[in-house]
Design brief:
CATH architecture of the largest domain: 2-Layer Sandwich
Number of helices: 6
Shape: globular
Strand order of the largest sheet: 10-9-6-7-8-11
Order of helices and strands: EEEHEHEHEEEHEHEHE
CATH superfamily of the largest domain: ATPase, nucleotide binding domain
Helix content: 25-40%
Largest sheet: 6 strands, mixed
CATH topology of the largest domain: Nucleotidyltransferase, domain 5
Strand content: 25-35%
Length: about 230
């Protein structure tokens, strides 16, 4: 029975959740991105107090490593590492885009038998987004990149099957694409529920990160012409 505290402040929604295995004990959320820095640490204390859980009772701390909001990533990472240091607990890092892909998969579960891919997007200002492509097993099929949106960028993938776009960056792409039968936009938002699901899987195989050397991964180099490249 793994008791995991999960933190996320990588996008416009910040959340702190407490889970025993995949059962939610409690979750606190903040929807004002400018307040994420002042939300995370008090929320950690509040959620444990409300649940009657002590810091030493935790089995691990999970946090999104990025990409996403610079400030949010730094605050959540610092809070997670602080608990790990103070209580000698393991740290689990979860990629934000993979958690978003999981949220899209859960939303689209009734049609999961289709040939499809998940393309989560995080708004990175102007026409820039953080993005990657995942298969139905949530395996990474492309590099994680920060790109400037182009209408033809996903043509090769749209020829292979249905591409499900999600996240707060996807709304910027929709007007750029011509009508595409294989392009679908999902109105779904991830939170620490998906972070916990991925963290529990990592906990089961002791896939922990070094607390001392763990840092947010900003993925901030921009590529304006490169096509999505396979990681294989």
């Amino acid at each position: 029975m793994s008791l995991i505290l999960s933190l996320d402040a990588s996008t416009d929604r910040a959340s702190v959740g407490l889970y025993r295995n995949n059962e939610k004990i409690d979750i606190l959320e903040n929807f004002e991105q400018r307040d994420h820095a002042s939300f995370i640490q008090p929320a950690v204390v509040e959620i444990l107090d409300k649940s009657g859980v002590l810091f030493q009772d935790l089995d691990a701390i999970a946090v999104t490593e990025g990409p996403g909001s610079y400030t949010g990533l730094r605050v959540a990472m610092a809070s997670a590492k602080g608990v790990c240091y103070a209580q000698n607990k393991p740290l689990i890092l979860v990629n934000t885009l993979q958690a978003m892909a999981l949220a899209a998969k859960e939303d689209y579960v009734s049609n999961i038998g289709d040939a499809l891919f998940f393309c989560p997007m995080i708004d990175a200002r102007r026409l820039d987004v953080f993005t990657a492509i995942y298969n139905q097993e949530l395996e990474l099929l492309t590099d994680i990149q920060a790109i400037t949106l182009e209408a033809t960028y996903w043509d090769n993938w749209l020829e292979k099957g249905k591409l499900l776009f999600s996240g707060n960056g996807a709304s910027k792409l929709k007007p750029l694409l011509n009508v595409q039968a294989n392009a679908q936009f999902l109105d779904v938002t991830m939170n620490v529920s998906q972070v916990n699901t991925l963290a529990q899987a990592k906990f089961a195989i002791s896939d922990f990160s070094d607390v001392a050397y763990s840092q947010p991964n900003y993925f901030k180099e921009f590529y304006t012409t490169a096509k999505p490249t396979s990681t294989n």
